[in-house]
């Protein structure tokens, strides 16, 4: 069966709009560590996927999943020590004020629940998001989504604010001025909700602003907007679906770099290394107050198998010292990307940390004209040469580099060499 036949069958059975990567979609049959394999046995270096954070099909995660599935897998209305132990272990990685977890299956459900909780706890319903955000696929999230097309109209009780990036700051604007200007945009959003009689419930942000393109933030920006949101009686919800589980190498959670303790944290993707496991973390007071008026029941979220998998992921992160790996290999990767920037003028900026980078491609370094078509060619050429990356950002001109946390220096070198040759031939 050719890839084309499979694609046609997919279109017939699943519709032709379900998204696939690459001009020539890739059929994968096997994964191991940082490697993915197609049906011919050709291997691809995975420099994109954060879901398999401890590596594809990690034997300890697979073993935990299989052995718990062979012992007990049941919905979540029974007592089970594995689930409670996982909840205790997970919450211990947060600020002491964030001491209670609610499990879901997806990041979308976690963000939807976070919005419900914020609305319940504040009595408000206004929401502020970034002007290029994606937090999930439910109706209330579609109503505030700005990064993907959606037929839901943008919510009249939501406001979208731009996120500052030092790389794109107008010449002559200092970091402090940029922070002032963009903090003022959040203040204006709060005022505009107030003017329409809407009480703020929450500001929902990704702690790395990943979909926005990992902007270089001016110092103090997140801390200052958190203070404004709290002054207005709202809660700060931080989405760790992309930034969490040690991605930055500095901390377990992206928000820990910002100096502002959030009210609700949402988790997903890497949490189950591919098993659908997600959730939110908040104070016990908030979780119990919400639960007192809303019976929230999630059939599969935090099942015994989910808890076994989640615990195994935490074991591997600790035992294989993956934060340290993200830091060290990330520093090596950053050097490699900077070297490429010295060689290829199409690279306008390299930003990120740990094992998450955005490489901004521009047609002209001075005018910073986004090179979206070129980024697409690079991503597709990399795929042809056996290295998988993707693109992000409003202008689709940033290469998204976010490999599993078990990425090695040798993997980084192979990636850099391949990117070098693709850029040379662009
Ligand atoms: N938040 C962020 C930042 C995401 O990137 C995504 C998925 N791309 C989600 C939430 C939604 O997660 P899920 O697909 O598991 O519902």
From TrEMBL:
UniProt record similarity statement: Belongs to the class-III pyridoxal-phosphate-dependent aminotransferase family.
InterPro entries associated with the record: Aminotrans_3, Aminotrans_3_PPA_site, PyrdxlP-dep_Trfase, PyrdxlP-dep_Trfase_major, PyrdxlP-dep_Trfase_small
Biological source species: Metapseudomonas lalkuanensis
Gene Ontology molecular function, alphabetical: pyridoxal phosphate binding; transaminase activity
Keyword Lyase: no
Keyword Transferase assigned: yes
Protein name: Aminotransferase class III-fold pyridoxal phosphate-dependent enzyme
Keyword annotations of the record: Aminotransferase, Pyridoxal phosphate, Transferase
Co-factor requirement: pyridoxal 5'-phosphate
Domain of life per record: Bacteria
Database matches in Pfam families: Aminotran_3
Matches recorded under SUPFAM superfamilies: PLP-dependent transferases
